[in-house]
Design goal:
Layout: E1 11-25, E2 39-48, E3 55-64, E4 75-87, H1 95-123
Antiparallel strand pairs: 1-4, 2-3, 3-4
Length: 148
Amino acid sequence: MQQLEAVQAPLKLGTYFFPKTIFESNTKGKFEELKVPEVKSVYTNASPKDEDAFQWTVLLAIESEDFENNPNACFHFDIHAFGTFEWTGSEEADLDYRKKVMAVSGASILYSATRDYLGIISAQSPFARYTLPAIQFRPIDEPEERPE
């Protein structure tokens, strides 16, 4: 078994909310043929709110396939999560490092919150509670690591 070390992330969550929530059920398809949709897109953005880059905002947008692209999708969702974060790490850390930490860790925190939020919403539909798939956020400039 791989041993992991848990360390405190150099950020603190302030607040988060969902400024956009669309959840539509498919009322035109045959119920027995409807399937859970795939996630179509995940978008993130992290931006400093102040000149010293101690206060940050992170946006996460997640959308599933729509009915036009997947007429057998049982539902379609488009949810935006917005969070405020505070940098709690070293004051000497450069802006690029802070942005990577905020983008990756902030998006991960918001993704987890969105998973719960979407689960609550979908549980009220005639379909089973939906759980967002596990994903890994990684800065685009870092190569993907693949096991041999």
